[in-house]
Amino acid sequence: MTRLITVSGGKGGVGKTTVTSHLGYALSEFGVDAVVVDANLTNPNLGFHLGIPLYPVTLHDVLRGEAHITEATYIHNSGLRVVPAGISIDDLEDTSPENLKDVLKDTIGEPDIVLIDSAAGLGNESLSAIEASDELLLVTNPDLPSVTDALKTASIAEDSGTHILGTVLNKHSGKHHELTPEEVEEMVGHPVVSVMPEHDVLKQSLTKKTTVLDHDPEHHISHKFRGVAADLAGIDYEMPSRGFFEKLKRMFK
Ligand SMILES: Nc1ncnc2c1ncn2[C@@H]1O[C@H](COP(=O)(O)OP(=O)(O)OP(=O)(O)O)[C@@H](O)[C@H]1O
Ligand SMILES: [Mg+2]
Hints:
Number of domains: 1
Shape: globular
Bound molecules: adenosine-5'-triphosphate, magnesium ion
CATH class: Alpha Beta
């Protein structure tokens, strides 16, 4: 059965779209039939993260009842299927996020996993994404405002019966002013499933309009995302150890 997983966290800019695109990419590398959906209807940008920003038919057309979801589903060169949202200002009108659940039930074929990239905040579109999904993956940063928003998102998901998979603690630098993974776990009340470091490679790959897995496949961030994707899909994956010579080699690359 298809698993509908929303990636959300409340706060803007914490890395929801980055996590969605990277996990989607990693899942398709593993041969999992995965679809990523841009449910950020007001400020969509999943397409930019995957190097395909402009599409003729989008989720907005589907939500308006003007197209079937099959017409708004595109195959990325990684094999990942993408349902983008429209980026024009006109797309902001007459869109009903409440239709998301019904629309997603029609996803072409029977994908193993659908990852839904949620908007920031807890407005109509984020709530619709949470309600449309069976499971929720939280994304937060190691600071109080982000974690407070993640906690709110978790409470809303619990009330709507959405299972919480855990938290990706993103942009972690380990500096002393940051909340620790243990503190985040305690505050949010759900396990931290991955601690993703703050790293320029994520900005570099975004500039290249692709994922780190494509831009630098052996980077430890690529392996970290593969690790989370493998856990999500129940796949055995051994993270390569980063020996001294490997680190040295990469420093001179
Ligand atoms: N671990 C990281 N290290 C460094 N930069 C990161 C990291 N994760 C994400 N970023 C950068 O942070 C910015 C925001 O990321 P992203 O768009 O994924 O956040 P978002 O939560 O989806 O934002 P929004 O709420 O606007 O949808 C991007 O420039 C992205 O490249
Ligand atoms: Mg986003």
